[in-house]
Fold these 2 entries.
Entry 1:
Amino acid sequence: MMGGDPLLSGFESPTEFGFETRAIRAGQPHDQRTGGVVTPISMSTTFAQDSPGVPKNGYEYSRTGNPTRHAYEACVASLEGAKYGFAFASGLSAEDALFRQLTPGSQILLGNDAYGGTFRLIDSVHGKKSGLANTAVDLTQPEQIKEAWTPESRMVWLETPTNPMLSVFDIRAISDVVHELGGVVVVDNTFATPYLQQPLDLGADVVVHSATKYIGGHSDVVGGFVATNNESLAEDLVYIQNAVGAIPSPFDCYLALRGVKTLPVRMDRHCENAQQIVAVLNDHDAVSQVLYPGMKEHPGHEIAAKQMKNFGGMVSFRLKGGQSAAERVVTNTEVFTLAESLGAVESLIEHPGVMTHLSVAGSALEVPDDLVRISVGIESVSDLVSDLVQALDHAG
Ligand SMILES: Cc1ncc(COP(=O)(O)O)c(C=O)c1O
């Protein structure tokens, strides 16, 4: 137990083991009673107490703490190099917990490309209803943070690579500027995952995830995660996690924990397949621009090469034929499924302007209408390539 809050316990991260070992074992001792090697799904909502207020095994009520959730929290915290990890019912509820610990009137500086739902949460829910201000900043120029910073500024929020434009921001340079100003840096690490990028090591204060994506990895669980080494923030988060109650079910935690075991092998294949697809897209006449940080021509390539182990499975591209061409491409694939979300074993394709990023229309974060985003899965890459090529032939 840490600090003054009895709910807050820091995880000892077994850093002597490699990433792949921790993905499978961290936080998951063999079941004490049966020797089972898989963490049980602990469905009990309440736990026996020895005397009033003194739980037998540290657990009292499942919203407050649950053994399956704790195993999952310990595992992902370990992968992010964090002492504290908190699982939430969705990526947005994880983000919401971070916004809730800001006092009304605080300002958030936001990278000028981000998931539409994040912008909606900051701008419409916390902005209009709880008095948080937000300003979009071009974070490719970290010095611009100083110009946008006001006495009310508290937090810089960034994705890297971003959704859906695949921009890359220098986490170390941004953290240096923000720390000089006395602020906190939050990195949404959903696209990169801790396997490819560890923001806390690069100076960020907090990592957030939509665990619905690569962490779960199979399109069968919605979840969110926050990891940090900052004890006072962790105290706020554990309080909010329990007081608000946006927690994942034990079954959701089991699914995410099962998914994360294969994160390294899945990510290797996502990256390999994406690189081959990028080469094909670059050669296709219907495509005007490919956005992928692994390309030397990408403006963020050098930063990505420095702060990421590989370049990920997300690719966006723009079509010469505009919005109608984009619509024709996304409706003509067979192996790629036209659907929202990303980061799972199956390949998905979407049109961000009218799907995932509709909520940023008219804002500084608006996305081009000729943009297509693909989440490259781990199927046979030859099938993915021929599917995309035949769909691009419909671009007109
Ligand atoms: C980068 C990013 N962050 C956060 C979220 C929100 O996560 P969730 O859908 O799990 O609430 C998403 C969802 O697509 C996302 O892509």
Note: Residues 90-92, 115, 117-118, 159, 163, 188, 190, 210, 212, 222, 224 surround pyridoxal-5'-phosphate (CB under 6 Å).
Entry 2:
Amino acid sequence: MKLAQIIGQDEPIHILSQALRHDKLAHAYLFCGPDGVGKKTSALALAQALNCHKQTGDACLECPACRKIEQGQNPDVHLTEPDGQYIKIETIRRLQQEVSYKAFEGRVKVYIIDQAESLTPQAANCLLKTLEEPPSNSLIILISAKPYNLLPTVISRCQRLTFKQLSVENMERILKERGFSGEQRRIMAFFCQGSLGQALQLDIEPLLAERAQLMETLMSRLPLPGEELLDWAQQLAKDRQRVERLLRWLVLWYRDMLILLRAGGQIELLNEDKRAELTRQAVCFSVPEIQQKILIIERTQNHLKRNINAQLALEVMFMDLNSGYRKRNNYEAAA
Ligand SMILES: [Zn+2]
């Protein structure tokens, strides 16, 4: 991919493009930021731009160097990832040996170390030597979503570039380019807030089926009789992953209501197919009341992360969410 094609990371991409243009690249970079926002893609795009035969300041994607890097077959571009849980000292020693050889084909040898926080302390200390005396015509790129787990001495020897979470709009743009339908894009972008990597790993069809089922049996029917809610809590508590997904669907449900109250018919909803039901529910509440419901769901998400009794947490949440619909009955009675 060309650096110019990377979406949503204007700042780091601008810095890299400028450095390329003026031949002022650092010897080592640390790309940090959340998972799945384009750090590794950017590192590979930089490797292509550096080694491209046309040397226009970005990759051409057509020359043999660009193509081989795309296919992971360029001997001058190395990608190191954890072997199991860690990147061990043997791996870094091999890398150091490699660094000392001349480039086979390209101009610059590029070493990308993904999940650099997995370097063992020994491996990190070993890598320090290379970072302190970088061989000419080599570039080391460390990638990490958890840079606070890296040795400060390693961080201080790299130029640090921060990659941001992708906005929903940028996620949708990228997913559109990759051929996902409107409904799929909306759900993927909202469901995997800011992480394209996560979105692309989603198995979207079962997720859409689950959404449809939850909409019919739960969200669209709120408020539900108390005993039915206790049943839901009991059933759901047995399946942590399903609960996590349900809580996200619930947040999105109430977020749609917020959009409706604030923007009316102007903006497309995530659950666009349920607009009528969402509208009927939304008129029961004020904006702060819906914000309060979202807070309740987020609080439950935090409780579950801390291993608090899931069934109890869900019962409390459902009761809270169920409340406040009385106005709706009045509204319906009045209608
Ligand atoms: Zn090229």
Note: The first strand starts at residue 28 and ends at 32.
